[in-house]
Amino acid sequence: MKINVVTIFPEMFAPTLEAGVVGRARRNGLVQVEVHDLREHTADKRRTVDDAPFGGGPGMVMAPGPFFAAVESLAPPPGSPIVLLSPQGQVFTQTHAERLAQEQTLTLLCGRYEGVDERVAQHLATMELSVGDYVVSGGEIPALLVIDAVTRLLPGAVGRGEEAVGDDSHTSGLLQHPQYTRPPEFRGYAVPEVLLSGDHAAIARWRREQSLRRTQQRRPDLLAAADLTAEERVLMREEG
Ligand code: JF5
After folding, report:
1. Which run of H or of E encompasses 135?
2. Portions of the chain given CATH number 1.10.1270.20
3. 0.70 exceeded by pTM
């Protein structure tokens, strides 16, 4: 897969893209990430990317010209996703990540300042994604997040042994059960007995129950779409 990024802060990307699962996927040639400086696509001596908002108001708006020029120079395959990271987008979910991971090419556009000229969202980007309902200073960290979530889904990116993939929170639609490692007692805090029992069926039942209970308590919004048996649905209704 090829991922293009367009940003005024290209230096924000290299260290993050070298670490962990994404770093290894790049070294193994599973994904190629190209980070492009938006200012390379400006026309003036000052390399201006922003301007005052029409209609007045505070702050600056990113002009459409450099974004259009950057994407035209990249010439992404027709129909490939061009994603504008923005607080106005749909909230990015595992389902988006799964769809994007099927693509040959992905192009990510990072905004800054008070926002991006709407013609970028309407006539250049094919979709607009938000990474959540909080204020961040630019689309760069959201873009890194999308790169991470998509790259780890590429075949071979997550090694066997790390491959809890189907168990991860949000693949099953449920939160993950609690995890423990040695020692069995730490500062007086014990690991739940069942995990030391060697009874694999009992362990699986306990983990499932913990996942369901945690999801109901912490993220009840996830339960509606989660993969629950009819019996589990009844149980969740009863336990409130
Ligand atoms: C931004 C102008 C973009 O990209 C985001 C974002 C994504 N999810 N939540 C926030 O904001 C960056 C800021 C200002 C354009």
Report:
1. none
2. 170-239
3. yes
User: pLDDT digit string (tens) for 30-59?
Assistant: 999 999 999 999 999 999 999 999 999 999
What kind of architecture, by CATH, is found in domain 2-160? 3-Layer(aba) Sandwich (3.40)
Which residue has its alpha carbon closest to ligand 1 atom 7? 130
Q: What is the DSSP letter of 19?
A: S
CA dist 170 and 191 (Å) reads 25
Phi-psi region of 25 (alpha: psi -120 to 50; beta: other; left: phi over 0): alpha
Residue 74, SS3 per DSSP: helix
Q: Which of 61, 136, 147 to mutate to test the pocket of ligand 1 (most atoms within 8 A of CB)?
A: 136
Task: Give domain 170-239's CATH number out of 1.10.1270.20, 1.10.8.80, 3.90.850.10, 3.10.20.30.
Answer: 1.10.1270.20
Ligand 1 nearest atom to the CA of residue 143, by list position: 4
Would residue 152 show up in a list of annotated catalytic residues for this protein? yes
Residue 106 CA to residue 147 CA, distance in Å, equals 9
Tell me whether residue 184 is one of the annotated catalytic residues: no
Write out the residue limits of the CATH 3.40.1280.10 domain(s) in the chain.
2-160
Residues 148/106, Cβ–Cβ less than 8 Å: no
User: What residues does 108 pair with on adjacent strands?
Assistant: 5, 83
> Is-catalytic flag, 182?
no
pLDDT digit string, tens, across residues 104-162:
999 999 998 899 999 999 999 999 999 999 999 999 999 999 999 999 999 999 988 78
